[in-house]
Design a protein that fits this description.
Alpha-Beta Plaits; Deoxyribonuclease I, Chain A; 5 domains; seven-stranded mixed sheet; six-stranded mixed sheet
Length: 711
Amino acid sequence: MRNLFLGLSDELYDELIASSKNCLHWFCPRCEELVFDTHCYAGEKLVDSLDKLNDRTQSIDQRISDNFDKIEQQLLDRIKVMEELLEKKSVSDTAQWQLVESRLKKLEERLAVIEENQERIEFKVDQLKRNIDEPMVQVVQGAVEGALQLDKEEEIEIERRKCNVIIHGVSESQGDNSDQRVEDDLAVLAAMFQEMGVGDVLVESVVRLGKRSTDSAHPRPMKVVVNSIDGKVKLLRNAKKLENKRGWRLVEDLHPPGPNSKTERGKEASCSGAQTTKSERGKGLDNFQRKGDTEKRSPISRDKLTCFYINARSIMNKFDQFETYVYDLNRDIIGVTESWTSSHILDSELTIDGYDIFRQDRPVDHNGGGVLLYVRSSLCAVQCSLLSKFPEQTWCYLLDSTGHQLHIGVCYRSPSDNIFGSGNHDLLQGIVNELGDTHKHFVLMGDCNYRFQSWPPVINDHCNSVEASQFYHCIEDNFFTQHVDFCTRNDAILDLVITDEPNMVYNMSDLGPFLGSDHNALSWQLEIHTQVESSHRRIFDYSKAAMKCELNKIDWNLALHQLSAEESWNVFKAKIECLEEKFIPTRTVGTKRKKPIWMSFKALKAVRKKRQVYKKYRDVHHPAYAQANKKARLLIKKARKEFEKKFAKDIKADRKSFFAYARSKCKSKAKVGLTEDSQGKLQGDSRIKAELLNDFFHRYSPERTTKMFLY
């Protein structure tokens, strides 16, 4: 260190200190000792610092090495994740391509089926044209010739009867010889003409009409042929005098027109197509039908049906509100899920006037679930079922104007696997696949409990469950359309409406929550051409009957003397029908829609107001909607309570009305719908349906049926 202080080089310093003769002392001994001790301490301190620096350097190297290994491992992990993502994407792309190929294959198969059907239809049309062209000319020509011949015969008969007069009430001669009886009749006629002051009228012939009888109290009428039309007119003008004096009655002999005669065709043309047919008379008591009970059916064509759907969450304690909705909206098809009905609830408690009901309760002993389907009675819906074993579903079908079937279904899938197990998802998809495989024309509504956030759902959206994604792909694979694109419960689309045609449903709307339910009610229109019959019956108005006096004049002992039971019934029926037509007027009974007996106008108006407020604000928490909802609920409850209180108050004075209302809630109003015969045709006639049911029970239970009829 000294060379640094002296400014000497290292070589010069070493030479100076190496020579023993040159013992140089740069400091005093004390300072030199101090300098050399400090130098030794500084060297030791420097060594320690170097050791520490070396240790620090090694630790830094170790940390850098460790960090490098960690970064390297992270990079390797990232590379592995990227490779897995790329592999999954390739698999997903392959699955998507396979899905597209399968859909294209199904579409090609459907196009092939459509082409085949088109070719078959074209072939049938050509065949019908060939069969119709030639025979049609012959049929028309034969019909024209037959009509002309009938017209000619009718004109001849009318001309022949122009001089005929029918006389009733003239006593018959008791002579054994027919000539003698004719002479006696001519003598009576001569005296009659003299008394009437028409002695110049000559009689060409006289004939008694009908089979000769020994009953002198009921003489046969006489057909008298006079010499001219003027003579006939004179007789008819003076016939009133004779009828008042002796009880004889003269009428004109008219020709009764046949069903295809000229006169009848003229009447049909003048009535502008209106036709009224009389019911056929039965031979026995069970087939007794009155002449006045005629029914006029006029077909009405419609190009749409209106539908209504709710998730009720127990329909029984909300049935009053439900009836109000049904009467106000007047829909053709109504679907209900979560009815919470069971076997101890009768059909009569769920029936709505003017609708046919189809129901399916939850098949296990567990509260909740159940579905209901109401279809307007005039559509003549027929209950049916699918092969799928899905537990909570009900189906029916109706015929459109072309005779094709439209299947209508309601289903409910429970969100819990504790009731039916996890296989309920597969069974619901089985319904969709079955509808696709059988090519049914259908509309399916229901609560599937898949929480779709939007429709169509976003692909690979983690908000949708695996089952929801599978159900969506099942609908897409069968080329079906789901029409609800807004949330039906909070922020999810739970209630779905599925059809096999994309343009089948339109005007889908949200009616707001049903009373006491957290699901919104749905309303839409269904594109289908139907033809329903609006019936108007003409019945006797017995409140204005005036035949009591005529009935008192009949001596029933004499009229039914020595007659069997069947003969007595025929005589009694003939006399009653004759008096009904003569003395009882008729009135027309239509099929007007009836308001529920308990409903008040204020309650109905409040329900309509509630729907209008919801349509305006679209918010169930809005103060205006909350107020309208509360008012509607209270008025419905008040109307029902006041109705029952009035019934209970008047029970002693009007027991008939009370028990009639009670019976209406205890007896089922279900009726036999269309019945399929052995040829596959649907029959609606009551007599034919009775025969079909009788044959069915006789075929499958002959011994039981025989015993039933014996008793």
